[in-house]
Write a structure and sequence with these properties.
mainly alpha; 0% strand
Length: 259
Amino acid sequence: MVFTISVLLIVLFQFVGMVVLLEVGRRIGLRRRRKDPEGAREGVGAVEGAIFALLGLLIAFTFSGAAARFDSRRHLIVDETNAIGTAYWRVDLAAPDLQPALRDSFRRYLEARLDVYRKISDKPAVEAALTEVSRQQKDIWRQAVAAARAPGSHPNLTMLLLPALNAMFDITTTRTMATRFHPPTIIFVMLMALALTAALLAGHGMSTAKTRSWTHVVGFAAAVAVSLYVIFEIEYPRQGLIRVDSFDQALVELHELMK
């Protein structure tokens, strides 16, 4: 909720700023036309075209990158579900007397993994959950190595279970880093500053009209502001209104199967 409110305030500031600068640009244009009616628009079109093209490219690339990372995070949830499931079913190859303890460790491990993302807005709680995940990984690995050496286990348990555990642990690191991978803040600052600059130039270009076109003013500012909002939301899909939480259901269903 805090994230959503913060983003809405940023977007509102951007919208209001663009509307104000559109009006400022219009007044600058009117003043210049009064002083130099013939040359008021001389060479301005090329500058406006370059600025608007740059703004369009920056919005497109930022949106495209955020959408790609959003899809990647969803796929990583499925990949982790598959990795945990594969390792869990291979516990069947361990000695029968060792299987219950291993399966119980898998259940606790999956609970710890779900806790990481249920508490994503609480940084200390997330760090504590990640610490618990690391502890559970060490415990599972120790039990798996002991099971591989125990009489009664399948001869190929070492080759089948330990690589599966490696994959299960590796995807944890990949997902953790994916949640922290975002464009540098300067990219967002540059995008917002460029949008404000474009608004100023657009207002200057609209000074040729005798009256203001509020449809164009509000429409332009709203389009950019909404684009920024969507980019922020899909860039941080665990904190806003656009979320990947529904994909966690795959892990929840796997946890149910383990009971």
